[in-house]
Specification:
The complex is a heterodimer of chains A (274) and B (246). Chain A is 86% helix and 0% strand. By secondary structure, chain A is an all-alpha fold. In chain A, α4 runs antiparallel to α5 and α6 packs across α9. Chain B has a domain of 150 residues: 3-Layer(aba) Sandwich (Rossmann fold), CATH 3.40.50.300. In chain B, α2 runs parallel beside α4 and α4 runs parallel beside α5. Classes of the chains: A mainly alpha (274), B alpha/beta (246). Chains A and B meet through α8 and α9 of A and β5 of B.
C-alpha cells in the first residue's frame, strides 16, 4: 500500500516540475555552502579554544589574503604558478598522449617499453625534480620539464588504455574515404579518446599543481610554492594557509568554468536521447 | 578494341586468400576468384553465408593486402572509391551532415547536398547525431555519404540486412533512385536473391568456401520493367541455371 502511495506522489503533475527542477538544482549548491560554512565554524571554534600563532583562525587568514591581494603579491604569485601548471600540463598531455597511443596501437612496442613506463611511474617526484635541477640548472625549463616528466607516465598509461579501445571500423572507413592525417586525428582519433583524455586531465591537473609547488620551493624565486617556503621560514602559518586556499580556489574555478564546460561540449552527442 | 579514353572495368583476379589463426589453423577463404564488372554496371555478389563475400570486398577496398592475385579498379573521372559497410559506420560524434561532408575531398567539401538529402528523405535530419537515427535512417545516411563523393566505383556490403522487409524495400528503391541519377560501377554483396534480381545488371554467383565463381547471371531487362510477373520469371530461370542456390 505504501509503495503504491509513494508511486503516486512521485508521478507529479507537469505543473509541479518547474519548481521541482529549481529545487533539485539548488539543493546540491546549498549543501556545499552549508558544508563549507560548517567547516569554517569548526575551524574558528578550534582556533579560539587553542589560540596559537601556529594555528590561526579563518578571520586572520582572510585578513592576510586581503593584504596580499591589495599589494598585488597574491595575484603575481598565483599567476606565475598557474602559468607553470598550464605549461607542464600541456607538455605532459601532448607527450604522454602520443606515447600512450603508440604503445596502445603497437603491441610489440608496448611489450618492449612497458618496463620503462613502470620504472618512471615509480620514480618519486622529488628525485625527478632534484635531478632536473642538477642536470639542467635552476631554470624555468628544468622546472616545467621535471613536473611534466612526473605526470607523463600516468598520461601514457591512461591513453594506452584508450588506444586499445579504438574501434578499427572507423579507421577503415577513414581509409576508404581517404581522410587526411589531420582529419583522422580530429574526427576519428580524438573523439574516441575523449573520455581517456578527460580522465588524464582531471587527475593530471590535481597532481601537477601539487608538484609545481615543490618545484617552486626547491628552485624558483616566485610562485605560490616559493611564497609558502618564505612564510615557512617566517613561521607565518596564516600566510601559508592564505596562499594555499587561494590557489585551491583558483583550481576549483578552472574546474567549474573551463574543464566541465569543455567536457560537456565534447560529449554533447552522447547526452541526447536516442 | 576499346575506344580511346574508354574507362577500365572492375577486374578481379584473386588467386588465393588464406586466413591464418594464431593457433596455426589456416582457412582458405578465396581460391581462383575472378570476375569483371563493366563500366557503369550494377553487379551483385551472391553467395552463402561465410563464403567470403566480405573478405572479397575488404580486399577490393584496400583494407586487406594479404592475398595473392591482383585486381583493377575502374579508372577515369574521380578515382575515388566509396563503400557502404555492413554496419552504417557513421561517426557518433558528428552530425549526419558532417559525416557526409567529412568523406568528401577538400574540393567538394562545400558542395550543395540539398538534392541528395531530399532524395534520401534526410532533409530534416542533417543536424541530428547518429544515435538519434533509426537503423534505417542511419543506413540512408551511409548511402548519402557514399553517393556524395561521386565515386568511380561503389561497394556495398549487405546494406539492407537486419531491417524489416518494408524498410528494406523502401531503401532498395531509394538506392535505385540515387544510383540512376548517376550510374556508377557498383558491386553489392547480398545473400538475398530477390534483392539481387531487382537491383542488378549481373549477378555473380559464388560457391561455398573456398570461394570461386559458380557462374554469372545477366539481367538485361531495364529495371523499371521488372514487375512481379517478370521477377518470378527471372527467379525461375535463375533456379533453372543454378539449381543448388537458394
Ligand atoms: N579475420 C579473420 N580471421 C580468420 N578467419 C576469418 C577472418 N575473417 C573471415 N574469416 C573467415 O573467412 C570466411 C569468410 O568470411 P566473410 O566474412 O568474408 O564471409 P561472408 O561471405 O561475408 O559471410 P556473411 O554473409 O555471414 O557476412 C569465414 O569462414 C570466416 O570464418
Ligand atoms: Mg559479410
Amino acid at each position: 500500500m505504501t509503495a503504491l502511495e509513494t508511486g503516486g506522489t512521485r508521478d507529479a503533475p507537469p505543473s509541479m516540475s518547474g519548481r521541482r527542477s529549481l529545487a533539485t538544482a539548488l539543493v546540491p549548491a546549498l549543501t556545499v555552502s552549508v558544508s563549507l560554512l560548517g567547516l569554517c565554524l569548526l575551524w574558528n571554534l578550534a582556533a579560539s579554544v587553542w589560540p596559537s600563532r601556529a594555528f590561526p583562525g579563518p578571520g586572520q587568514v582572510w585578513q592576510v589574503l586581503l593584504r596580499e591581494a591589495a599589494n598585488g603579491d597574491l595575484f603575481y604569485h598565483l599567476g606565475v604558478t598557474l602559468g607553470r601548471v598550464a605549461a607542464a600540463y600541456i607538455v605532459a598531455m601532448i607527450i604522454g598522449s602520443v606515447i600512450g597511443v603508440l604503445l596502445g596501437s603497437y603491441r610489440r612496442v608496448d611489450r618492449f617499453f612497458n618496463p620503462w613506463v613502470i620504472l618512471f611511474l615509480n620514480i618519486p617526484a622529488l628525485v625527478v625534480i632534484v635531478l632536473g635541477y642538477i642536470w639542467f640548472g635552476l631554470n624555468e625549463a628544468a622546472a616545467i620539464g621535471a613536473v611534466a616528466v612526473n605526470k607523463i607516465p600516468n598520461v601514457v598509461v591512461t591513453m594506452r588504455e584508450g588506444a586499445r579501445t579504438l574501434d578499427p571500423s572507423y579507421a577503415e572507413m577513414a581509409t576508404v574515404y581517404r581522410f587526411g592525417r589531420l582529419d583522422r586525428i580530429r574526427h576519428i582519433l580524438l573523439p574516441q579518446l575523449q573520455p581517456y583524455l578527460a580522465a588524464a586531465s582531471r587527475s593530471g591537473i590535481a597532481l601537477i599543481w601539487k608538484i609545481v609547488l615543490v618545484v617552486e620551493l626547491l628552485g624558483r624565486s616566485n610562485g605560490v610554492g616559493f611564497q609558502i617556503h618564505l612564510y615557512f621560514q617566517l613561521f607565518d602559518v596564516a600566510a601559508i594557509l592564505a596562499y594555499t586556499l587561494a590557489f585551491v580556489a583558483v583550481m576549483l574555478v578552472i574546474e567549474l568554468l573551463l574543464v566541465q564546460p569543455v567536457e560537456r561540449h565534447a560529449t554533447r552527442w552522447r547526452r541526447r536521447p536516442a | 578494341m576499346q575506344p580511346v579514353g574508354a574507362v577500365v572495368p572492375l577486374k578481379v583476379d584473386i588467386a588465393e586468400k588464406i586466413f591464418r589463426s594464431a593457433r596455426g589453423v589456416s582457412i582458405t577463404a578465396l581460391q581462383d576468384l575472378s570476375f569483371e564488372v563493366r563500366q557503369g554496371e550494377f553487379a551483385c555478389l551472391l553467395g552463402p553465408s561465410g563464403c567470403g563475400k566480405t573478405t572479397t570486398l575488404r580486399i577490393l577496398l584496400g583494407l586487406d593486402k594479404d592475398f595473392s592475385g591482383s585486381f583493377q579498379l575502374p579508372q577515369g573521372g574521380s578515382n575515388r572509391i566509396a563503400a557502404v559497410f555492413q554496419e552504417p559506420t557513421l561517426l557518433p560524434w558528428r552530425t549526419v551532415e558532417q559525416n557526409v561532408r567529412l568523406a568528401l575531398p577538400k574540393s567538394l567539401r562545400a558542395k550543395n547536398l540539398d538534392g541528395l538529402f531530399d532524395t534520401l528523405g534526410l532533409a530534416g535530419m542533417r543536424s541530428l547525431y547518429p544515435a538519434e537515427l533509426s537503423l534505417g535512417l542511419a543506413r540512408r545516411a551511409a548511402l548519402a555519404r557514399a553517393f556524395a563523393t561521386e565515386p568511380a566505383v561503389l561497394f556495398l556490403d549487405e546494406p539492407f540486412v537486419s531491417l524489416d522487409e518494408q524498410t528494406a524495400e523502401r531503401l532498395r528503391h531509394l538506392l535505385l533512385t540515387v544510383w540512376s541519377a548517376r550510374p556508377t560501377t557498383a558491386l553489392m554483396v547480398t545473400h538475398n536473391l530477390r534483392e539481387a534480381l531487382m537491383l542488378s545488371d549481373r549477378i555473380i554467383v559464388l560457391a561455398p568456401r573456398p570461394t570461386h565463381v559458380l557462374g554469372v547471371f545477366d539481367v538485361r531487362l531495364p529495371r523499371q520493367q521488372r514487375n512481379s510477373q517478370v521477377m518470378s520469371d527471372l527467379l525461375r530461370s535463375f533456379h533453372h541455371r543454378f539449381p543448388d542456390v537458394t
